[in-house]
Amino acid sequence: MATDPYTEPTNAGTPAPTPVLSLLGASKTFGPVVALADGTIQLVPGEIHALVGENGAGKSTLVKILAGVHQPDGGQFRVSGDDVSFRTPADSKAAGISVIYQEPTLFPDLTVAENIFIGRQPRGRAGLINRGEMRRQARELFARLGVPIDPDRVAEGLSIADQQIIEIAKAISLDAKVLVMDEPTAALSGVEVERLFGVARSLRERGAGILFISHRFEEVFALCDRITVMRDGRYISTHVTADVTVDEIVREMVGRNIDALFPKSEAAIGETVLKVEGLGRAGVFRDIDFEVKAGEIVALSGLVGAGRTEVARAVFGIDRYDQGTVTLDGKALKPHSPQAAIDAGIGFVPEDRRKQGLVMDLSVAKNATLTLRKSLATFGLINGRTERRVAEDWSKRLQVKTGSQDYAVSTLSGGNQQKVVIAKWLATEPRLLIVDEPTRGIDVGTKSEVHRLLSDLAGRGIAILMISSELPEVLGMADRVLVMHEGRITAQIDREAATAERVMHAATASVNLATEGTAS
Q1: In the beta sheet, which residues pair with residue 493?
Q2: Cα 116 vs. chain centroid, distance in angstroms?
Q3: Model-level pTM?
């Protein structure tokens, strides 16, 4: 176990700073389930501290203890050296802890200023709300953060990035000592991430302690001063970021060596399965031409907003297109008809698995067999035993970790939910599988499992179209890379010729690589 540099004197005769937050040996059980066995984190003023671990490592439970949502069964909890015991989230906020979630929950009908000061609006002599003072204070908060947001703007329609900044402004107005950022960048573009990082660094300079939770190692190593690793509900280590490598962190997270995060095996490339010609939709994408062959993984890459997901949705029939054709195994697909795509042999794993890929309140078994309802039914009725048997078979093949097929799919980790979505489509025996951001929001160990699964599917002759915003994933898994920029394909690059620089040049249209290193 690594030594925490802030639990000992920093040098001879110099005491370590008092942690602004100290949680030591916290435990939490829910019935027979041990969610947290040794939750330990120490955060000092003026640092950004990463908390990393696989899904199921205990991070979410630890954060809920900090937020006052859960009360620990044991352990020591201190804020600025004082013992605390939170019974409600209000207790946590009163102690100076604010949690910034991936998707903030503002009141959409209220203004930005009203959301910041709701329940504690400044008042004038007659006891009436002083709206002018409220706007002035809101403008001052945004000036401190260096972000121009109109205090009079209604919250409805604001981007996730702006909503998070508003939550941070609210935390500052409450004199928060600790900001917990829980996967704050998952839904942000590159520009929005940089803006958030700038805000986080300015808060660090002002002495705030920031706990940053993310699966993205490039962000952790670019932003954070220290890294704490958890595994299986237990504290593993704390490192100074500059003194550790990504490989070392990964080994501690998963408790084993990962030979390769991208276990891409060679597959025999067969005949063309999907062919897209001249596909276009006014104002969204145009002149889209590509094909995917049996056993081939083709990655659709590009910056957020380039039109990748829109093309995939059009191919599957969810969204309309104005011109062009989509053929599968030489047969034209009926436009704007997901059922026709499914009948032809296409499966679609969407970007948002919780809202578009699963019915969260239904069981694992029902979700895994959603695409088989007709074939499993006899006289309109589905035999539950048959349903569970089929789901159990796919769960074993994909190594879905669940206590029972009857558990709600919402009880699974993000990685296991993703496997259920994939199982649902593999059960249809597809010729083509479209996967949109297949590893978004899942931990590094499960990412490796999903990558291995995609490679195995390609080896079985399934054609795969993969949309990914993670450049290492694109370079590690794709046989060919199609790069999009502003609704057009600007490059088609073979695996051997694909580099990060070449893909990024094409993604930003700084150079046209359409004829360089392309597939024949």
Answers
A1: 481
A2: 26
A3: 0.60
